[in-house]
Write a structure and sequence with these properties.
The chain contains 9 helices and 9 strands. The chain is α+β, with helices and mostly antiparallel strands and about 250 residues long. A hairpin with a 2-residue loop joins strand 4 and strand 5. The chain is globular, with a radius of gyration of 19 Å.
């Protein structure tokens, strides 16, 4: 493994954690020797790609990394063309509207509109990654991905975030079949207690799913009637975003 690959692995471990990590946690997450991790962390902090808190002895993403990520995300065509549809979804539902893409075997948030005063803390900050098996957008992106990616994700150990998380590969594949048939996916408090999410695909001119659009609401609001209505609104807005893609 090259030094560059090791450095990227360290960055991925820290930024994917949704929290800061200690030295030991980074070593465990990356399976890289301690001496190498120590050197890489020192260099990454010097470059402002990571920050280090002396009091807690924990590392997290730095401003330089955030600036690079924001620059890359700003250039994604789908983010620009889907913005109007994302705004419409937020305005018509009053809930959080989010846009995401698949990056290998994880997803990445590339846009979000959140109502003022939303009381539940979300982990959907723009630029952050999210798992495919237990999020609505993740299920969309996985269900319409290639067979090799589906196989990789469903064959490995699936992390459990709540008691509702699907951790069995066979059950996940069945869920993905349902997603493909319905044209939308639902996260029923599978990654965060108290939150339900509905997502639909954004399709390019080549017929491939380029991104996913979602709506997040409190589980207290997620009655069958409201979920049915939200699913229709998400599908309509995602379809409009698909139609706006340039040729």
């Amino acid at each position: 493994m090259s030094a560059l690959t090791k450095g990227f692995r360290v960055l991925e471990a820290v930024t994917a954690a949704n929290t800061s990590l200690t030295f030991s946690e980074i070593v465990e997450a990356t399976a890289i020797p301690k001496a190498s991790v120590h050197r890489l962390l020192r260099e990454l902090v010097e470059l402002s790609a990571l920050t280090y808190d002396e009091s807690s002895r924990r590392y997290q993403g730095g401003l330089a990394l955030a600036a690079l990520g924001a620059s890359v995300i700003a250039n994604y065509d789908v983010r620009q063309t889907a913005r109007a549809s994302l705004e419409r979804l937020h305005q018509t539902t009053g809930y959080v509207a989010t846009l995401g893409i698949r990056d290998g075997e994880r997803g990445t948030y590339i846009d979000k509109i959140e109502p003022a005063g939303f009381m539940i803390r979300l982990h959907s900050e723009v630029g952050k990654s999210f798992p495919l098996h237990c999020t609505a957008m993740g299920k969309i992106l996985l269900a319409f991905s290639d067979a090799a990616t589906i196989s990789k994700v469903t064959r490995r150990k699936l992390k459990q975030y709540t008691s509702n998380t699907i951790t069995d590969g066979k059950a996940l594949r069945k869920e993905l079949e349902t997603v493909g048939e319905n044209g939308f996916a639902v996260d029923r408090e599978e990654i965060t207690r108290g939150l339900v999410c509905v997502a639909a695909p954004i399709v390019g001119l080549d017929g491939c799913v380029d991104a996913a659009m979602s709506c997040t609401l409190s589980s207290f609001d997620a009655t069958p009637e409201i979920l049915e209505r939200i699913a229709g609104q998400v599908k309509n807005c995602a379809s409009a975003a698909s139609a706006s893609r340039p040729g």
